[in-house]
Amino acid sequence: MMIRRLYGQEVLDALHLVWDVFVQDVAPCYTSEGVEAFSQFIRYENIEQKMRTEGLTVFGAYEGNVLKGAGAIHPSGHIALLFVKKEDQGKGIGKQIFHALCGYAAQTFHVTKITVNAAPGSVEAYRHFGMRDVASEQVRDGIRFIPLEMWITPAAPKKDHKKIYLIIGAAVLCLAVFVLSAVAVFREVGNAVTSQSPSEGWQDGGEDFYDWYEQMPYSSDGQDGQDSSGQEDSGLDAIDAYVSDEADYEVKEENYSYIPDDTTSTVIQFEVYYPQIEGLSDSVQKKVNQTLENCAMETVDKLYLNPSQEMKEKVLSEDNPVLASLVEYKVTYQGKDMLSVMFQDYGYEGSMSDSYTALRCVNINLKDGTIYDVKDIVELNDEFIGEWLDGMRDEADEETLLSELNEEEMKEVLAGDSRDGCYDDNFFVDADGIEIGLSFRYSDTSEANTGFAWVTAPFELDELAPYQTDSSFWDLLES
């Protein structure tokens, strides 16, 4: 079973599924007023607008290419929909979608509480999931429901800073469904969940998750660096991008998406988004666009398109292999002659236990295609390393961060020594200056692992002046 985020036509397909199940299982218990209210709520135009303006996120549960169930969650942490096809009920699919929604809300919206308005027949199931009643049965517009809630632990933000540095262990990532929700739950797991459930007669699709919060206007106007859910912006969303008035080229989005048609024991899902540039000279444009695509596709290439013999053997050794990569990006600096792009990659590298979140950055000269790394733009001397380490620990709010390395080793890491893939040096330019940091991939047994996926230390441009190299990079930045 694959649970992932839905877009476009997929959302419409999910709403058809929701309506079919509602008509069979729920509508007979509602008044005509309730049926009409629900039908209006799940109109595609309504859901699409809420996705676009309010952050409602829709997920689907797939077995191969067949949609088995669907769910939706609001940035507030309120579950708006969760339905499973009638013939597939009682197989644990509803529970899997529920956990996916909760994980996504914790990871992406950083909520501390999940809420749902459940039909009376589904209350026991939700209690089993860990939710508790917060009020007695209510009736609105002909729909009966009982409100429930459950407290969860969100991804922890750095206090007094707008970004989240993704404290993600393997167990959290398996639950979190990471924006696309490339989480694979196998038949064996589904069967185990079903056999352990105390509510044997519960029908997954029989719940009404009509979101009464949606009846109230939901403001999308964040304040003080917060999004519309009242939570701080995080990750790529928190970066204040710079766009020059003199940038006379276009940035367009491309994507690579692949889910195989067959239903073998190997779970494969790739959804990779990346920018492409139009309006440069042909030779430079080709070089720039190939660089951007290669960076975005790095994991897909490693796992699937050009795997090493070692990777092939690793996949073959797994009972239930998982190859997954979701890549999202943000153009953080769009200058006349300089482009800076962040890529955030969530995935599984062969198995459910080998999950990761990685940051990769491209900083490229739009005049000749030159790519810049950390070692190209700053002198990696003792003074810089000291300031950088202070910034990293301040951002992470963790005094032990990188304590496993001495100063010389930190210089080597920032110069590109990955220490067998444990560290990847990165920097990006944004409206506030330059952030320099690392993406982490500690081994499971490493005592140095504090749980961070990536951390970057922010510098204003004048703070880096004492450490600037003579690289052409500095001539490309606009004041």
Q: Keywords, please?
A:
single chain, 479 residues, alpha+beta, Aminopeptidase, Heat Shock Protein 90, 2 domains, six-stranded mixed β-sheet, five-stranded antiparallel β-sheet, 15 helices
Describe this structure in words.
The chain has two domains: 214 residues, Aminopeptidase; 242 residues, Heat Shock Protein 90 (2-Layer Sandwich). It is 31% helix and 27% strand. It has 15 helices and 18 strands. Strands 10, 11, 12, 13, 14 and 15 form a six-stranded mixed β-sheet that branches. α4 packs across α6. The longest helix is centred in the N-terminal third of the chain and has 18 residues.
CATH topology of the largest domain: Heat Shock Protein 90
Q: Supply the CATH class of the largest domain.
A: Alpha Beta
Radius of gyration: 24 Å
Helix fraction by DSSP (H/I, runs of at least 4): 25-40%
Count of helical stretches: 15
Q: Kindly give the count of domains.
A: 2
The low-confidence parts are 155-233
Please tell me the overall pLDDT.
80
Tell how many strands the DSSP assignment holds.
18
Q: How would you sum up the major sheet?
A: 6 strands, mixed
Distance between the termini: 51 Å
Pfam family, one: PdaC
Organism: Claveliimonas bilis
Protein name: N-acetyltransferase domain-containing protein
Keywords: Membrane, Transmembrane, Transmembrane helix
